[in-house]
Every structure is written in C-alpha cells, then in structure tokens.
C-alpha cells in the first residue's frame, strides 16, 4: 500500500477515536466544562498535559530545527522542559489549593481588582490566539502534504474535529482525547527513531544511539563523524553551535519561564482533586514530555548525518526518489551554480528567500539534469542546496528508507500534536470570555446553564477565528511564537509568583508590573521582528539579547516595577493576606 | 493548629525549593550553558559532557528534581499535619 492509503487509514482510525471520546464525555456543568469537575487522576492529567503542551512545533519542527542548529538547539530542549520544575515547585500546588477555574481568576482575586483581572484576560487571549493559529496551520500542512487535500479543506476538517470535542465536552472531552492523542503522537515519534537509530548505530534506544559508534565497523563515534562532516563543509562544529552564550542563556530563561506562565498549561493543574496530586501530576507530565524531548536531539543528529551523507558532493542524477518528491513541493531545491552536476552543500543560503519554482502552463520547468528550475536570485556563496527545516521529521522515514506505514504514522502523529494543543488553547479562550469577562465582570448573576452556553459559543467562535488564521496566516506567524512566550514570561509569571510568595504585594504594584513588562517585551519584539526586520542582528540587540530572549528582561522589568510601585501603596486588605496564607498549606 | 507550626512548615518548604532550584540552575544553566565549553573536554562514550548535559542530562535531572520535591513535601505535609489525607 502507498503512503497516502496508509495515511487515510491511520488518520481515519484516530479521528474516529477522538469523536467517540467526545460523545462519551459531554459536559453538563461549567465545572465539567472548565476543569472536568476537578476529578482527573494525576497520571491521566500528566499525559493530557504532555499532549496539551507538545504542539505541531514540538512534533514536526523541533527536531528539524535542532538538526540545523546543533548545540544551539539546546535552547528549545532545556527551555521547553525546565519550566516544569518551576511549575511543580512554585506554581501548580498553590494554584490548585486556590481552586478556581482560570489564571485571570487568580490574578483578579489575589489582586482584588477588576483591572488586574482584565489585564490578565487580555494577556491570556493574546498568548492563546498567537499560539492556536500556528496549530491550525500545522493541521493544514499535514493534510495537504500527505492526503493531497487543499490547505483550506485541511484546516476546515481539523476545525470540525476540534469543534466537535472541545465545544461539546469542554475540559472533560479535551482531557480524555488528549490522552489518546498523546499515545498516538509518542508512538508515531518513537517508531522511526528506533528504526533509524538501529540502522545507523546498531543501538535501538535513540538516547544512547547518538552517543554510540557508527554501524559501519569504523569504530568512529556518530557525533565525531558529524562534527567532522560539518568542519569539512565549512559549518561550525555540530556540538558547539554559533549563538553567543548570553543569548542562549536568555532565550532558555524566556522559554522556561514562559512555559510556566502559559495559561493553557497552568489550567490543567486545576483539574486534579488535591494539592498533592497537582505536584506529582507535573512530574508525570514531564516524564511523558521528556520521552519526546530526549529523543528529538537524537533524531536531529541522525537526520543531519543521513542528509549530508546522501546529498553532499553526490551527482544530482543519483538522488533517491524522496529528493525529487520534496523538490516539487518547493521545500527542497538545488541550483547547480558551478554546473558540475554535483550537489555542493555548505553554509549560507543557496538563494534569496524560499524557492519559487518556474512553471509553464502549470508544468514545472526543468534543467538539463531534470531538476526543477528556480526563480530566486542565486547568492554568491558555493552552497547549492535549500532545505526547509520542517521537512526533516516528515521526510525522515523516507530518507532512511522505512516502510510506508511509518511515514503515514508520522502524519497521524503530527495531527494529534496539533489538534491536542489547539483544543487546550481554545478552552482557555472560551473560559476567558464566558467566565472571566461575562460571569465575573458583566453579569455575575448569570445561571450556570447560561454561562455554559456562552462558553460553548465562545469556543465555537474561537475555532472559526483560529481556522481563519490557519488558512490566511499573517506573514509573521513564526515570529509571533516568540511573542507568546515572551508575553507569558513578562506578564503572568512574576504576578503569580509574587502573589504566592510575597504576601504584601498589592494590586498597584502587580498591575504596574504586568503592564510595563508586557509593553516592554512587545515593543522590543515588534521593533525587531515586524518594523525593522533588517536591523535584527546581534550588533543592534541590547546586551546581545535576541527578540526570542527578551521575555527574560521583560520578566525582570516586571519584577522590579512591581516591587518598587508596591512599596509606595498600602498593603493588601486583611482577607487577601489570609487567602495567600491559606493557599500555602494543603489543608 | 498553632500558628508557629505553619510558619515552620513554610520555612522548610522554602528551604527545599531553594536547594532544589539551585541544583536546577547549576545543572541546566551551569553545566549546560556557562560551563559547557569547559565540560566538553570531558567525554562519556561519544558525548562531549557539556553537550550531553545541554541536550540530555539536564532533562533527566529536571524529572528527578520534581519527584524528589514530591517525596519531600508529602513527608513534610504529614510531619506538620497539613496533609489532605490526615483526619
């Protein structure tokens, strides 16, 4: 059977499971819709959190990114796991004891202020919308690549599925679908990794495989081989990287703290019965996440080595089938600059921008060796190969010559990763509207039934908006992910931490801190990413900190402003101080 | 319950958090970033040590730290009578 048939079968089966769970777990009250009645077991919640957290970016893009960044890819590996230690030690148990529905709930009650609540709602909405657009795009991409469905219809199908289980089941439906989605995505991620690790190094465990010797009898370590290939071709050593130390440091902090401040992650810990469960649940979540995150750097090394060995200085004529398939999608391209018929791969971009294929009457125009011709201006360097980072995970099974069902499995896994994250985000958006805005601010007397109806309407509207952005992504989607983390780090994290650990923190300080942290971070990112992208180089950055890492500064600004402004104003009222006291003890 | 007990509980909690977060920082930012070039001189199997900490070791340590904290806090909850399971 070909990849496409296999993909239809696997995607069909997994989607049926998701819908089945949705029908079984329809939510009847706001408590079920918002936090699954707080009755989820810690292990189940850990698994659901892992699926919630690992998005299309973790599944499809991260290993590919790392394989091109080498050591610098560390920022994602540590940055997207280390935040869970902060969650377990500083946030989850206390927020569980607080025991309401949302993050703005905590901010609003702790800082006894509707303004604080509103600032938190705005942050939650910005963070969640930027994030969810990327997920819908991921869904569309998988559909169009593997099932040859138009991106538009791909997104519509994805929307329909999420709509079904998120709008009907709320948190309850989402939790149990996420458990199923975790199983699908981790299986799909690990199977090709085992195979390729076995092929290259003879060790079935990828985590050990990429530190082992090669399978070719030479006795050379895989990483030494890769470093050597890199040096020969003029790249920096794979295990050293090129980013400055302070930038790696700042980006890692921003991603860690941002992770711990993301509302769709925090809210998952409201769903377990006890404080004790919240603590251990974070531990389970990180184990499930670590399985993928410790495998990803191994996949990065395997696919990087396979790629270089397959293409570098080889005749174009002898490229395998997958090379031509991906060329036709424009995600891989070759320009024979020195006309020797060999693929010369090296540092620098082979051409300006992403390849645009020359077409005549819809037919691809080809060069004398059969390679699709490219419109883009060639650059002066000797590199002739363009490789999109996103294809590394998708093309990995084909590059390694694995059976067709493995490639189809990767497609189903990518969909599971994108849908599970999208659903979690949509829930945050809908609760922010129905609970934090309507119930808490506009109409406190609203009945539970009516609030639930608003939650469903808000979820439905959010699905449609997310779908729109998935089909018509703003040109800077990749860039705005930095905004989501930077904003979470610079707004929520300090406000929550101070709220728990500093009893005398008052509303004036917290609001001033959140607003300045938010504006500072936004301004820096918008300046370099959107207004003046041509100036986005290390010489122009403050203290060598890239826009990806500026959230760390934003967090420090927030802390400093909160503490300074807080000193000037009176202490919070007695009952708020008592509330802070009470969330510190499980009973 | 006496107020003094709760103060003691909170102080101990903060002590645990402080110690565990220093390990968290040392392993990830210390071994994985700031000291990585120096540690790369040492090798375990095919891994340079700094690179291994950055892309593998730190993640294992993160998991371990959370479970150590869970263990310590469950014990502390019982010791100070604030556990949700105590009558």
Largest sheet of chain A: 2 strands, antiparallel
Stretches with pLDDT under 50, minimum 5 residues of chain B = none
User: What is the SS-derived class of chain B?
Assistant: mainly alpha
- Rounded to the nearest angstrom, the distance between the terminal CA atoms of chain A is 59 Å
Low-confidence stretches of chain A: none
Quick structural gist:
The complex is a heterodimer of chains A (587) and B (87). By secondary structure, chain A is mostly helical. Helices cover 68% and strands 2% of the residues of chain A.
Kindly describe this structure.
- The complex is a heterodimer of chains A (587) and B (87).
- Chain A is mostly helical and 587 residues long.
- Helix content of chain A is 68%, strand content 2%.
- Chain A has 23 helices and four strands.
- In chain A, the strands form two sheets. A two-stranded antiparallel sheet of chain A has the order 1-4. In chain A, strands 2-3 form a two-stranded antiparallel ribbon.
- In chain A, a hairpin with a 2-residue loop joins strand 2 and strand 3.
- The termini of chain A are far apart.
- The mean pLDDT of chain A is 89.
- Chain B is mainly α.
- Chain B contains three helices and two strands, in the order ααββα.
- In chain B, strands 1-2 form a two-stranded antiparallel ribbon.
- In chain B, helix 1 runs antiparallel to helix 3.
- The two termini of chain B are 13 Å apart.
- In chain B, 39% of the residues are buried.
- The mean pLDDT of chain B is 91.
- Chains A and B meet through helix 5, helix 6, helix 11, helix 12 and helix 14 of A and helix 1, strand 2 and helix 3 of B.
